[in-house]
Design brief:
By secondary structure, this protein is mainly β. The protein is built from 2 helices and 23 strands.
Amino acid sequence: MIHADKIPNLPWQDRKEGSSDIIWRYDNNPIIDKSFIPTANSIFNSAVVYRGGHFEGVFRCDNIEMQQNLYLGISDDGIHWDIEPTPLNLYKPDTDEIIGQARGYDPRVCLIDGRYIVTWCNNYYGPTIGIAYSTDFRKFYQLENAFLPFNRNGVMFPRKIGGKYCMMSRPSDNGHTPFGDIFLSQSPDLEHWGYHRHVMGAGGGWSWTKIGAGPIPIETDEGWLLIYHGVATTCSGMIYSMGGAILDLEHPWEVKYRCKPYIMHPEEIYERVGDVPNVVFPCAMLCDGETGRLAIYYGAADTVVGLAFAHIDEIMDYIKKNSD
C-alpha cells in the first residue's frame, strides 16, 4: 500500500512500447530553462508539490552574477510553469517582518502537519541547511539553520517518526565535496536537532565518491522509498546518477534494500552538456496514491529542469531484486 494522496492531474507520459527503462524521460524535456526568469543564467535542482488541484514549486535560479536564489512558481499541469521574476521573501516567524530574499540552492519541500517545510542549502560561514515553513505557499517564515556548516541535501520525512521530525543530510566541506554519506537527524520542534544516525555510505562503481538524499521519501507498507543521487569521480570529472533504496518505516536510518545498479544515468544532451556536465539530480517526486504513478523532477547538467516517470511498484521490485 502507498501512503500518498490522489493526484488526478499528475503529469504523465506512458513508457515507449518495447522499452524496459525503469524510469523514462518526458519527450519534451527540458521543461524549464533560463528563459523563465529574465535575469537567469540557469534554473535547475528545484522542488515541486501538489496543492489545491495545481502544482507549486520552489525553484533554484543562478542569475547572471552567478548568485543563487530561490523563486516561487505555479502550474496547472506540472509541466508548463509560471515562475515569479523576483526571489521569494523570508519572514521572521509569525510576523510581517521581512528578513530578506531567499538565497541558497537545491531546495526540497515537504508537507507535514499542515505546513510546507522548505529546506535548502543556506549560507552560514559555509553551506548548511536552512529551514522555513509556510501554510499558504506565499509567506515563508525562516527558522534557525538546522546544522553547523558544512552540510547539504536536507530532506525531510513527511510525518513524525517516534514523535520527532526527521531529516536526512550530507555533512560535507566548503568545496565540491569529494566525499559524503547520508545521515539522519531528529528534532522535537524543527529547531533543535540531534539523535544523529548514519543511514548509508558512498560505495559502488557509480556512487563511490558521495551520495545525497533526493526527493521527499514516499511511505509504503514495505518501507520508505528513497531516491538519491550518487557520484562517481572519473578522469574527466564527476558524474551524478540516481539510485534507489528502501528504508525501515520506524527506524529510517536502517536500510532494508539498496539497489546496486543506478536507476537513471546522464544520457541526453541536456544532461551531459551544461554548466556542470553529466548530472541528473532528483529534488522532487510526486506520487498518485491511486495509480502508483511517479513524476520525478530533476536538475540536468546544473542548467535546466527535466521530468521523468515511473511506477512505484516497479521501482520497489527493481530495488529489492537488485539489492546488496
